[in-house]
Amino acid sequence: MSDDVVTATVTEGVGRMRIERPESLNAFTPRVLEELHDAIRSFEADDDVRAILFTAAGDRAFCAGVDLGDEGGLSESTPEALDTVHRAQRVLKALRRAPLPVVGGVNGYAMGAGMDLALGCDIRVVRADAELSQSYVNVGLSPGDGGAYMLPRLVGEEVAKDLIFSGRRISGTEAKELGIASTVVDGDAERTREVAFDRARELADGPTVALGNAKQLVNEAHDINMETGLEHAIEALGECRETDDHAEAIAAFDEKREPEFRGE
Predict the structure, then answer these.
(1) Would you say residue 69 has pLDDT above 90?
(2) For residue 132, what is the enclosing H or E element?
(3) What is the mean pLDDT of residues 190-203?
(4) Closest listed residue to residue 131, CA positions, set 150, 146, 118, 149
(5) Which InterPro entries would you find in this protein's record (predicted)?
(6) How confident is the model over 141-154, as a mean pLDDT?
(7) What is the pTM of this model?
(8) Which among 4, 33, 73, 97 is placed 20 to 30 Å from 41, CA to CA?
(9) 109 three-state secondary structure
(10) How far apart are the C-alpha atoms of 111 and 143, rounded to whole Å?
């Protein structure tokens, strides 16, 4: 039996990475974070991967945050704990910077830094009765793993502050209502993973360069002025026009058929 804490496989153009610690509610350790980061980098380097799916094993949790009983947990010294935070931030940045669409399948609890990892995905498919929380204040901490950066971009400043200040739990259904999730699944954990995979596979069938460029443009929109954003949009559009996928789309339009994108 494999002792990997994260599995990474490729299916139908989708790079699938999954935390494999259901007995610990998929709480992360430094090793989990290293393996997640390695999986993202390997998918980026694989021409057969055109979208990424981030899920977790088991019926109860996507990620319960940091493993409090592990080295690097909250009970460790401040330098060790902050090293774990830096590792979590590195995963978040890798998810955001990957030139591929990333779908998160949130099959259960997503607490604290676990919620932040979900926020790092481009699209979230969330189980209706999942529970998500910016639970840092419950242990006397402020968010350190990216939630305070990501959440206001999704729900606005006031709602983000309410969720962060209170540390309250929200359901997958409320997450959809707030704009944190694009799809809510009225089913169990396995069904949530299936729906998330179907969404990732749809994206993998799309024009890869165009999707990657669109992701970058949206990600940077809050951090640059309009003039710079428009310049970047022109550059990205010019690159897309030179791709085989664009030529295929034009040919398909002329021939009155659906395009078959190859990610080139």
Answers:
(1) no
(2) strand 131-133
(3) 98
(4) 118
(5) ClpP/crotonase-like_dom_sf (IPR029045), Enoyl-CoA_hyd/isom_CS (IPR018376), Enoyl-CoA_hydra/iso (IPR001753), Enoyl-CoA_hydra_C (IPR014748)
(6) 92
(7) 0.92
(8) 73
(9) strand
(10) 11
pLDDT value, residue 229: 87
Buried-exposed string 188-216: b where 16+ CB fall within 10 A, e elsewhere? ebeebbebbbebbbebbbbbbbbbbbbbe
CA-CA-CA-CA torsion sign (192, 117, 211, 262): negative
Phi, psi of 109 (to 5 degrees): -50, 135
CB contact at 8 A, 48 and 208: no
- Report how far apart, in Å, the C-alpha atoms of 230 and of each of 178, 209, 216, 224 are: 28, 18, 13, 10
**For the residues 36-57, what does the mean pLDDT come to?**
98
> Average pLDDT in the 224-235 region?
89
Helix or strand (DSSP H, E) at 214:
helix 208-220
How many Cβ atoms sit within 10 Å of the Cβ of residue 114?
29
Domains, the chain: 6-204 (3.90.226.10), 208-254 (1.10.12.10)
Rounded CA separation 104/92 (Å): 12
What residue type is 60 in one-letter code? R
Residue 245's pLDDT is 86
Widest CA span in the chain: 65
Which helix (H) or strand (E) segment holds residue 18: the answer is strand 14-19
